[in-house]
C-alpha cells in the first residue's frame, strides 16, 4: 500500500461495452483501499485533495448580470435605438422617457428571474444526505460503521447499502445479498435491476449500467443489502458528468416569436424617419426641421410598453403558479412557451404510473384464474420476509401481500431462501401434510420453468404464454411447489429441483390517480401527449390503455415514423432528445416532463423543460419549470397560466400595433396633404404616453375562455396580417373622420388654424384608441354581458384624457386648445359608425381565422 495520505488516482473509470473491466483486486489497488475501508486520516486527506462529493453547481447569475442580460432583449434594443435618435436631435424629454422605460423593464425582468433563482436554490438537495461508511480511527484498529455525510465520501471508502438507500457515489460491490436497485433515473427502466458482486467481470455488450457488479450515483436500493467500495465521487461520477452533456436548447418558441416581431418593428423604425424627411422635402420643400416630427412618428410606431407588459404578465403568472400550485418558473419566457405547447412529451414511469406494481391477476398454465396461485405466492413472500431477516419486502412481495389480504396465515413457515439475483428465485418452506414440508418457489418465469418437471413441449408453451403476457404490458412471477420429507438439515438452492408448476401472478404498474383526468384535460386544451419511455413497449401501451389514452401502434426508438407515434418505447436519452428536436423542427412547440438523468438531453432540447421537485438535481437544473409534485394536473394549470399571460401579451400587441400603424399612416398622409405638420412632436409623444399608460391594464386583463382552450403562439405573419388590415382601417377612419368634422365645422379655408387641427386630431386619436382597446381585446367584452374590467376602465380614463386635456393648462403647454361644442357633438355621431365598422371587421376576421386565433391552429400529431 502507498502512504496513508496519498490520494488515489482520480482518472475516471469508464467500462465500455464489450470490454471486460478490471478485477476487484485491481480496482481496490487503483483506489488504494481494502474491504476494511479507509482510516480517518486517509479520508480527510483525500477529501482535501479531491473535494466534496457534490454535483457541480451551476452558477446563479447575479441581479446585476440579469439586468444587463435584459438590455440585450430585442424590444429593449428598439427602445434604446429610439432613445439615442431622440438624444441626437436634442429631444431630451423623449430620450428621458424612453430610457426610463428601459430601466423599469429591465428592473422588473431581473427581479422576477432573480426571485425564481432564489426559489430554486432553496430546492437544491444533495443526492444523499448521509450514508453508512466503514472507517478506522487508525490502521491497527478494527473498522467501525458510522453515519457519514454523503458529501464527505471519497474514493476508497467502503459503504453499506440497505433498502431505500440512495447510492451516494459510483461504487463496486464487494458483497451483496438479494440486491436490486432502481435505475430509472439513469436508464428510464422502471423494473428493479439485479446486482451482485463479481471478482472478475465478464465481457458485456449492454453498457456500464447493465454491469451487475457496479452501482451508480442517482440509483436507489429496492431490496437486499450490500457492501461496496467507492470508485468515483463528485464531478467524476457518471451522474455528474451528464450534468454538462446533452443537446443544447436552441431558441424557444417565445424567443423566435419575439425576435421575428422585433426585427419587423426595427425595420419600420429605421425606415420611417428617412421616408418622412424625403417625402416632405420632395412634396413640401421642408428640410431638417421635420426631423423631430419624423422621430416622434417612429416612436409612435414602436410599442414602448412591450417589455414592461411582457415582464409584468409573465411575472404575475409565475407568481400565481408558485403561490397556488407550487410551480416554480425559472425562466420567465418559459411561461409563454407553456401556453404555446401543442405537444407534451413525458415518460411513463412516475408520471402515468406510480412506479409501484399491483397484482393484476393470478392464472394457471391454461390462462384461467387461479386464486391458489396467489395464495401460495403471498405465503412465500410473507415467510421469506419473516425468516430470512429481510428489513422490508421488495415491491413485488408488497403487492402480493396487499392482494392476498392475510391468506398466508394458514401456513406455518419453517425456512426461507431469499431472492438471489443469480438464480432469480426466492423460496419459503412451510409445513405441509403430516411428515412433509412444502417448498413455495416464486421467481422469474424462465428460472422457475427450467426447474419444473415438464415435457419440452409444455415448457415451450408456458414460455410462449409468459412472453405473450409480457407483450401485453404485464410483469410475471412464476409460482411452483414441491413436497419434501421433513428433515433437520438446512435447505439449499439444490432443493429447488423437480418442482410442480402452479401458475403465474401478473403485475402491472399502479396508475397515477390524477393521470387519466389530466390527460383528458390536456387533450381538451389541444395538447397532444407523447410517451417517450425506456420501458417495454407492451408495458407502456398497457398503461396508456388503462388511462383511456389510445396508444395506437407502439413504435420503438429509431422507427421511421417515430415522430407520429403516441408511444415510443426503448428510448435512450439520445433518442428522447432527437424526437423532441424533430417535433420542434416540424413546427410544434414542445414541452418535456422528465425527472431522471436520462431525461436531461430532452429537457434541454425542448422549448420548455419541466421537472418535478423530487427529480435528480441535474434534471431540475436543466428544466425551465419545476413542479412541487410529479403530477400532470400541475402541468395543466401551468399551461393555462401560460395562455393567460400570452393571451394578454397578444392582445396588447394586436391593439397597439394596429392602432400605432393606423396613426402613423394617417400622420404621414396628412403631413403630405397639409401645409403644416398634422401634429407637433410634443403632442405625438404626449398622445403615445397616454395610450401606453392605458395599455398597462392589459397585464391585468382576463382573457376569454376560448383563448385558454388552445395553444397560444405569437406568430409574426399572423400579426402582420392583423395589424395591416386593422391599421389601414384605422388610418382611413382617422382621415375620414377628421375630414368630415373639419369641413362641417369650418370649411376648406379654415384648415390654416393649426392649433384647432392639432387639438381636434389629438382628441379624436385618443377616443378611437380607447375604442380599439375595448373592441379588439380578447377578454370578456361588454357585449358578452360582463363588466369591462381593468381594460374597460383604462379605456374610459384614456377617453376622458382625450376630451379634457385640451381644456387644461397642461394641454396648453403642448400646444392644445379648447374646441367648440359642435365638435364634440359631431364626434359623438361619427365615432359609433367607426365602432360598428371596427366590430364588423373583427367579426369577419374571426370567421376567417377561426375565432381570433393567432394564425392556423397547430395540427395535432
Automatic annotation (TrEMBL):
Subcellular location(s) per record: Cell inner membrane
UniProt keyword annotations, A-Z: ATP-binding, Cell inner membrane, Cell membrane, Magnesium, Membrane, Nucleotide-binding, Phosphoprotein, Translocase, Transmembrane, Transmembrane helix
Class of this enzyme: translocase
InterPro entries: ATPase_P-typ_cation-transptr_C, ATPase_P-typ_cation-transptr_N, ATPase_P-typ_cyto_dom_N, ATPase_P-typ_P_site, ATPase_P-typ_TM_dom_sf, ATPase_P-typ_transduc_dom_A_sf, ATPase_P-type_domA, HAD-like_sf
GO MF, any single term: P-type magnesium transporter activity
Annotated membrane topology: Multi-pass membrane protein
The enzyme's E.C. designation: 7.2.2.14
PROSITE patterns (UniProt xref): ATPASE_E1_E2 (PS00154)
Domain called Cation-transporting P-type ATPase N-terminal: residue spans: 21-91
Xref: SMART domains: Cation_ATPase_N
Ranges of biased composition (kind: Polar residues): 1-12
Known function: Mediates magnesium influx to the cytosol.
UniProt name for this protein: Magnesium-transporting ATPase, P-type 1
Organism: Streptomyces nodosus
